[in-house]
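User: Show me a protein chain along with its predicted structure.
Assistant: Here is one chain, sequence first, then structure tokens.
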Amino acid sequence: ENKGALHVSVPEIVAGQQLDPGDYVVRWDDSSPNVQVKIMRGKVEVATATAHPMTLDRASTNDSVVVETSGERKNLSLIYFSGKKVALEIQGPSQDPAGTTNISKK
């Protein structure tokens, strides 16, 4: 099982589930082409999603996310992990390409 850190500074939606501001741990297995992602706050699973792991040419230098903004909704779409050569592209209800108005990196 793999894991990485996720920091949320404003409420964000992942696969239709809201994450409140705070620190989380993201866990996933090595199955391909898609993986089941569990987002944990402490020992409590607060959200699950399906993600597509993307192999990076080099390890990410920090933990970061890509958030798609649609109106007031901030949808988590991509997670990078410090020191890892993999990023997770979140699939499912959080993906709303038709309503995407802005993509920002935190």
